[in-house]
Write a structure and sequence with these properties.
Keywords: ATP-binding, Hydrolase, Nucleotide-binding. By secondary structure, the protein is of the alpha+beta class. Helices cover about 15% and strands about 25% of the residues. A hairpin with a 2-residue loop joins strand 6 and strand 7. It is elongated and about 70 Å long.
């Protein structure tokens, strides 16, 4: 069982939740940009949340399925279609053998996720399926997907053809995920203060909290470069390099900001003004170049409560998806 890339996209890779524990060796965690969407994609098709998914950017690839397959698509909306039929996001669905999945139009969002029942049958590198492009390791041969690639996925004992109506290439199953709370107010990103926040001038602190910042076109999976008012420190002393993480907000020498993303370096020497809270990283991951960000400061207790609530929601979703899928296939 496999799917074949019949037209490559701009940057489509296999990713999971990342490889942890190797930062001391200079190897960043990597993984999906939107952990929430990737986990839900796996839940909808009955997978463990740590299974690999395809992270799709627009312009996106086209995929041919060589077997009847249960799939789900989550995250950004690229107007996904199976042959000539538009398919919904955040639903599980069965596609027939030889159906073609394509994404003809960008509606919103920065990336979407494709999961298949059983997961993709690829080897792990350092305990993760994620593609590390700089190292050329992990994922599918350590690179983005190209035309002609055949991605195998694990065999299933479920007879998915029985869920397809005669003459139909697609059957959308009757449940979906409500993501309203996770992506609410998409441009409002909360952060907690970083070590060098107090080094900003009062006026610069005010700019950061009151102004909007535009995501620069040069942004990528490593970091979002932001365009806004020049920010200044009271004392421009050099800093010793220290650890950084997904969501760290740094001040560049030109007075502009950069927010580190999934493929961030492991250490950095620029001032750390703040850290985007974990519960808002999914929103951040779905923003695109030219979108704006409005930063809002919060505290650690609030950040923890939001993350706990999000994780509790995911736990409930996983149990519900497993139960609905079991009832359907039985």
């Amino acid at each position: 069982m496999s799917l074949t890339v019949i037209r490559p996209g701009i940057l489509d890779t296999l990713q999971d939740l990342g490889r942890t524990g190797y930062s001391r060796l200079g190897i960043n965690p990597g993984g999906v940009m939107d952990r929430y969407a990737a986990q839900v994609a796996n839940m909808l098709v009955g997978n463990d949340t740590r299974e690999a998914v395809i992270e799709v950017h627009f312009p996106a690839a086209q995929f041919l399925f060589d077997q009847n397959t249960l799939i789900s698509i989550t995250g950004g909306d690229f107007n996904a279609m199976v042959n000539d039929e538009t398919v919904p996001l955040w639903h599980p669905m069965v596609v027939r053998k030889n159906a073609v999945l394509h994404f003809p139009k960008l509606q919103y969002g920065g990336r979407c996720y494709l999961a298949v029942h059983g997961g993709f049958c690829v080897n792990k590198w350092l305990n993760s399926y994620s593609t590390h492009l700089k190292a050329g390791a992990g994922g599918f041969h350590g690179r983005k997907l190209e035309k002609g690639d055949e991605l195998p996925f694990r065999e299933s004992n479920i007879y998915f053809a029985g869920l397809l109506k005669p003459g139909k290439e697609l059957e959308v199953l009757k449940w979906k995920v409500d993501t309203g709370s996770t992506y609410k107010h998409p441009n409002e990103i909360c952060f907690i203060k970083g070590n060098e926040w107090d080094e900003l001038t009062g006026q610069s602190q005010q700019h950061m909290l009151e102004d909007n910042f535009i995501i620069h076109p040069f942004s990528d999976r490593m970091g979002y470069q932001l365009k806004g008012a020049d920010l200044n420190r009271n004392n421009n002393t050099e800093l010793v390099s220290s650890g950084v993480s997904f969501g760290t907000i740094q001040l560049l020498p030109n007075g502009q900001l950069i927010v580190l993303m999934a493929d961030h370096q492991t250490t950095g020497g620029y001032p750390r003004l703040g850290h985007v809270i974990s519960a808002h990283l999914p929103k951040l991951a779905q923003l695109r170049p030219s979108d704006c960000i409005h930063f809002k400061m919060t505290d650690i207790a609030t950040a923890e409560n939001l993350l706990i609530a999000q994780q509790q929601e995911l736990n409930i979703l996983q149990r519900a998806c497993t139960e609905r899928l079991n009832n359907t296939v039985c």
